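Marked as duplicate of an earlier ticket. Keeping the data here for the record.
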Amino acid sequence: MNLPMEHIQRQKEESNSQFVKKIDNSYGGLWFQRYLIEELTTNIYEHAYTRGTIKTGINYAQVYPKQNWMDICIFDAGKTIPGNYEEHNRPAYDDCHALEKALSGASTGHSEKVTYERGCGIRTVIKKLITENNGEALIASRDAYIHIKNEKKFTYNPGRRLHGTLITLRLNQNTVKQFMDPGEFHFKNPYNYIEEDLS
């Protein structure tokens, strides 16, 4: 029996709320933690799984008091970011390019004519994390990963196969302001992946 969507939505919101209540809100602030957990777990519910399959998703947080940061990890054993593009007939050159597309807002959830109806979650979370919290991010999906230290220092690499998607965010004790303006949805992705040989 399938649960009604309202029930699934309520379970998701309660689960996210309980997770944020259990972690130290001084890292990034309560609003930012709620925002990033909601945005990234929504991606799991909407993009990672095909209806009727086994659902596996894990949220994890670890504080490192000596280093003065906290890592939040979100993992799902779903179809992966590159797999999602392939499923919607919008394949990338390779898996690294698929990660760049996700960070550029090239969503599979909207038409090309709508500029910010969908596809803003992961990219706005990463933008705020890097520019306002001075944190770091690692995104790994299928055969690729990107490690972002700041807007000018980042690395794309093919990796060992991961059956799913892992997003690790390193938050500092800088509170991210509770503010979103239209410019937050219209920015150029600074994390460009250059494929050396597309021929």
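See parent ticket for discussion. Residues 110-119 have pLDDT under 50 and may be disordered.
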